Amino acid sequence: MKNFTNLKETDLYKPIYKYFKNLGFNINAEVSGFDVVLTRDDLIYIVEIKLNFNIKLLKQAIEAQKVANFVYVAIPLPKRQKGFNSTIHIAKSLGLGLIIVGKTVQVVLEPEKSLLNKNYRKIKKVKHEVDNRKVDINVGGSNRKKINTVYREKSIQIACHLENKEFSSAKELVKEGCPQETLQILYNNFFGYFERIGRGKYTLSHTGKKMLQENEFEKVVNYYRKHCKKEQDK
């Protein structure tokens, strides 16, 4: 990991990812506002990342306890040990696990099972993202960066199917393997990827064409281009 100079929250993500991957967890970053969501054996674990152990981190962790079975907070290795016992005490009193990221990842404190009243609508949303994302490109702790979601993936999938067509209809796109909610995605056009050119006829917009050529979602685009080709070759 980098030195403390210019350290970012995203710098802590890769070591945390490797640590929990080695323990057999399924890992998704930036899910419904949470930095890292870990799943295993039908249990949800959340890791909230910050450069400092502060009130904002604790608030985020408590919100996470309404969704997850277990919650960790992760911070860089402290420059000084003074006051660190208080950090452990506060985390323990709230039932939080504590992860320290330095040259290695050290789990200083394991979390207790969360007993807070659950936000079942948010739990459903988190599970939907975890179960339906196909491509992992997000980095935990990202700020002001576009993230990959199931909805964005489906929009990109439709864009890939339209890429080599003059136009198409939602019905035709669904037949080719696009999601059942294709019509709604085309109509809402949340990312501006599509353009309606007639009744039931859609084509790629300039924004959609530009997105397919840029690097930001290249991994997702390549995945769905291959998926699109397989469907067309059937």
Draw up the topology in text.
Blueprint: H1 9-22, E1 26-31, E2 34-40, E3 43-49, H2 55-65, E4 70-76, H3 84-93, E5 97-101, E6 105-109, H4 120-132, H5 150-162, H6 170-175, H7 182-188, E7 194-198, E8 201-204, H8 206-213, H9 218-233
What is the oligomer described by this structure? Answer: single chain
| Secondary-structure element string | HEEEHEHEEHHHHEEHH
Tell me, what's the shape?
elongated
CATH superfamily (homologous) name of the largest domain: af2093 domain
Give the % helix.
Answer: 40-55%
Give a description of the structure:
The protein is 42% helix and 20% strand. By secondary structure, the chain is of the alpha/beta class. Helix 5 packs across helix 9 (218-233). The chain is built from nine helices and eight strands. The model has no long low-confidence stretch (mean pLDDT 93). Strand 7 (194-198) and strand 8 form a beta hairpin.
